[in-house]
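Notes to self, Tol-Pal system protein TolQ:
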Amino acid sequence: MAESESLSIISLIINASLLVQLVMLLLFMASVVSWMMILQRGHYQRQAKNSFHQFEKKFWSGGDLGQLYRDGNQRASTHPIDGVENIFREGFKEFSRQRQQGRSDPDVVMEGIQRAMRVALAREEEKLEANLPFLASVASVSPYIGLFGTVWGIMNSFRGLANVHQATLATVAPGISEALVATAMGLFAAIPAVLAYNRYSANAESLVNNYETFAEEFTAYLHRQVHSDSGSR
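result:
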């Protein structure tokens, strides 16, 4: 029974008009690409969340931040560093650079550190939200594309009735069924995309809030360090 139903759906797609087939192909491709992005975004955001918790434990363990930065340098030679550790590294690198240059004004030093971490935070936010606009587009546009294919198919079905002396349900049913497949494919592409977009947008916002909180705490730590260094001179 299931095999005959699948074969009938395939036959409806094959027998559909060229424009409706193009609509179906477009929706199928959009669905495949969106599923690839859904899986990729899920994997990336899970990694980012785990990396955040792991790095936060290291940071607040009371160890030497200079050693933590040097350990990151060793790992950066083999693979890029993302997430909250990248924000830490940019801030600490600017802090070290300012100290090496002998800057004595704490406000100037902190302004450079905050600017470096803001740039790093913006880059990490872009990484977390990558591909989400495409998912939003698929979620919003796919039903209308499918509806266009359906309307076009139904128009062809009723136009074909002009050559039929007696119109029956059996006459128009195949054409309408072919057209409705386009709507079904539009919903099939849109529903996973909108669910994934809502979930990953919320996850990205939560992680960005965590990054911002860490950046503020790290800024406060460096602020005390900078004023301590300037007071000892």
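- Residues 2-232 form one domain.
- The chain has one domain: 2-232.
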